[in-house]
Amino acid sequence: MSIALVILAAGKGTRMNSDLPKVLHPIANAPMLVHSMRAGAALSPARTVVVAGHGYDAVQSAAQAFDEDVIVVEQKEQNGTAHAVDVCREVLQDFNGDVIVLFGDTPFVSAGTLESMVAAKANNAVVVLGFEAADPGKYGRLLMSGQVLDRIVEFADATDEERAVTFCNSGVMLADREALFSLIDNVGAENAQGEYYLTDVVGLARQRGLGVTAVACDESETLGINSRVQLAEADAIFQAKARKELMELGVTLQQPTTVMLSFDTVIGRDTFIEPNVYFGPEVTVESGTRIRAFSHLEGCHVSRGAVVGPYARLRPGAELSENVHVGNFVEIKNADVGEGTKVNHLSYIGDATLGSGTNIGAGTITCNYDGVMKHRTTIGDNAFIGSNTMLVAPVTVGDEAMTGSGSVITKDVPEGALAISRADQQTKLGVARKLFEMLKKKKQKRALESE
Ligand code: UD1
Ligand code: CA
């Protein structure tokens, strides 16, 4: 049976107290909407529809950035979850299959859970995802008769007896497309909130004699985010899970809770990660590397055997080949660093290509920006760049070439050549001693004057 994924993301999220629509607030550097889309993508949906309202344009572009084929429909007024699904009616008109509804602010539903809903759908017209709530609060309550889900009652409309039920509605629902929209036709808004509740579909389906059941998942999967405090909690939950997965895959995290990961961080086996390392989006680290303390990585690739940090910054486009060493207070951006090359201290390498076996001395800077344009620096294999070399790009240093410390290199250095560009040293014998004596006398004179 093919599946269409519908993600409800039109709500305002008042409690975020933000100009940014709630579903665009990030967890591990991806909007929570993208986490929901990724969760749903596990079912390989034939179609994905996002319902947007508040911050429509921003929500649309975030959805399209993740999936260019996504259909985004606008819900101008937020009249309830059934109304939100109803605005998808047209774009799903010609779709024959099941529709699964997820919420854009409930990002952690697992693939396994969604698959168990699909399995339960075989014998039912509607399947709802529920969970045993430690604190059921204001969640909708699932009223079961054995395996049959009779009705969902919203907290605001529930009796005390119904409120005592702890099996709650996560909001995830799976139903046959045709049945779903036909049931929505009968949903009214005569309830405590004056909204069209998607949850009413369940009671209506039972009235028609259709099979409805609930599948249970762990409460942590249904965590909904309504405030910044919950956003931080969600990030912490994500981090804890991602760290655990990495460790199980054979990565050592010396102080796991100090390592921050992104939703897409990939790290190979037998990599050793020291404390306080930050992985921004789009980082891949191969096996057997060491990422030392206080390093900040984003949009970069680190190959086998490399050592990064402590205190290194790898920015987007940094490509480190095998066995590269990048040391303390080194920033690398949009640069390929060849095998075994070392950039160990206090350097900026930007918009550059470095060959293999090259040594970049302390304090080397690629001067890539002239105030208007960015230019490239190219350095060959087995070159030696002296400490504090300024490489004024565009410039090329050939294989096995050298630059003298403190040089400002503005012209290409051919293969095998040594380039030095700095003022010649003058040495004046005895002059320092004279200067020291003069200073000493001045000091004494001042001391006498102030007595
Ligand atoms: C909903 C469920 C409740 C469940 C809870 C789980 C209904 C009627 N109630 O309540 O049973 O326990 O989720 O978290 O479904 N949205 C729209 N358009 C709308 C209304 C909502 O897109 O017109 C979106 C919101 O952006 C949000 C999601 O739907 O992503 C849920 O809406 P929300 O108002 O938060 O529902 P709850 O009151 O939490
Ligand atoms: Ca509500």
Structure write-up:
- It is a single chain.
- By secondary structure, the chain is an alpha/beta fold.
- Helices cover 23% and strands 29% of the residues.
- The chain has 10 helices and 35 strands.
- The strands form 6 sheets. Strands 13, 15, 16, 18, 19, 21, 22, 24, 26, 29 and 32 form an 11-stranded parallel beta sheet that branches. A 10-stranded parallel beta sheet has the order 12-14-17-20-23-25-27-30-33-35, with helices on one face. A 7-stranded mixed beta sheet has the order 5-4-1-6-10-7-11.
- The longest helix has 21 residues, at 228-248.
- The N and C termini lie far apart (99 Å).
- It binds uridine-diphosphate-N-acetylglucosamine (UD1) and calcium ion.
- Uridine-diphosphate-N-acetylglucosamine is lined by residues 8-11, 51, 75, 78-81, 83-84, 103-105, 139-140, 152, 154, 168-171, 197-199, 224.
